């Protein structure tokens, strides 16, 4: 199967998905997948690759292929702040057929991969869906491509239109370390969902305007995060993110 990854690049679904565990950075609004353990190692890993990158004044997503064999080797995807207007447009992706594989580029030229614009989290907080556009034609042929643990590209009529991260709370981190292999508590999923709801669209605007009710909601969210010591590493990431918001706007 071939897909249009960007306006200037086609790729073949080929080989096995990347094995690297995702890192979900709340502070940087990104999900990163690659064989590196710190920022310096990440920069070194870009040598001998091509693709899309965040250059000066560019907000592109970073998707890199090895020059040696033109295979996908790493990527970093931006998590947008704007909520999707129609949740049903995202719910459909949870029922789409699942493909499995990596990507083989049809050339070795650099290209631009604009980030997704809209996001949605399901009621249980177990699926984070990020879309390029608010809607995809209802009759479009949809599929999702598993390209790394719990990371999927969303494909409509042979073109990528966004991406999805399952169990997003499992991959929360504020460093290059992973959150661990312990199961994610249901409450942690819901806490992440509530954090995302508080930092998008009109809710974020209210917070940035110093609205006292919005600040009070944020303080109550922090109390819920700190109420238990279970799932400590992930709750620590959430708690730090909430404190940063409170310091900035409350």
3D structure, described in words:
This protein is α+β, with helices and mostly antiparallel strands and 250 residues long. Helix content is 26%, strand content 30%. It is built from six helices and 16 strands. The strands form three sheets. It has a seven-stranded mixed β-sheet. Strands 5-6-7-4-3-16 form a six-stranded mixed β-sheet. The protein has a three-stranded antiparallel β-sheet with strand order 1-2-10, with no helix packed on it. Strand 11 and strand 12 form a beta hairpin. Helix 3 runs antiparallel to helix 5 and helix 3 runs parallel beside helix 6. The protein starts with a strand and ends with a helix. The model has no long low-confidence stretch (mean pLDDT 91).
Set down the secondary structure blueprint.
Blueprint: E1 2-6, E2 9-14, E3 23-25, E4 30-33, H1 39-45, E5 49-52, E6 62-66, E7 72-78, E8 82-83, H2 88-91, E9 98-100, E10 102-105, E11 118-121, E12 127-131, E13 142-148, E14 151-156, E15 159-166, E16 172-173, H3 186-198, H4 201-208, H5 212-226, H6 232-249
Parallel strand pairs: 3-16, 8-11, 9-13
Antiparallel strand pairs: 1-2, 2-10, 3-4, 4-7, 5-6, 6-7, 11-12, 12-15, 13-14, 14-15
Helix pairs in contact: 3-5, 3-6, 5-6
Distance from first to last alpha carbon: 50 Å
Helices and strands, in order, run as EEEEHEEEEHEEEEEEEEHHHH
Query: Which radius of gyration do the C-alpha atoms yield?
Result: 18 Å
Tell me the overall shape. Answer: globular
